[in-house]
Amino acid sequence: AKMQKYLLYHSVGPEELPTLKELSTSEICKIWSGVSRYIHRQLLQEKAVEIGVGTFALFTVHASVEEGKVLPVERPVFILSKPLRMFYKLDCDETKIPDETPVVQLDFEEIAADTHFRQEIVEQCIHETLLCFAGALAEEKEVEFSFK
């Protein structure tokens, strides 16, 4: 059910983004940096992190280092959730998280403590940013979302 709220038919109006309106760009970036650090900590513990529109997970890819030498490298990958892929008719590779990988949700309390924002601000900021992201997908706009 949580996923449903990111299946939109049109972009999101400012009235649906009260928290983002209140926060400055640098505050929004601080919160997302906290999210990024949280995801990083989980990946280091070999857990995947589900963020509402998809999941971050570590995958082993084989990188060619020099002639004939191949090295397994762990690489973080973001997998857009299947309902979103289907709803927005997105063409992504079907990537499955290994069954033995535990999947965790964002811990808003931990991110709030780390970033010194109130928990509901963190939660709303993340939710509203993802709404913007979904709205951009609905309008087929190009979206760039960069994580450290």
UniProtKB/TrEMBL annotation:
Q: Which residues form the CCDC81 HU domain?
A: 13-89, 102-148
Kindly give the InterPro entries that the UniProt entry links to this protein: CCD81, CCDC81_HU_dom_2, HU-CCDC81
Q: Which domain of life is it from?
A: Eukaryota
Its cellular-component GO annotations read: microtubule organizing center
Q: Which residue positions does the secretion signal occupy?
A: none
Supply the Pfam families for this chain: HU-CCDC81_euk_1 (PF14908), HU-CCDC81_euk_2 (PF18289)
Q: What is this protein called?
A: CCD81 protein
**Record organism:** Smithornis capensis
Q: Name the gene for this chain.
A: Ccdc81_2
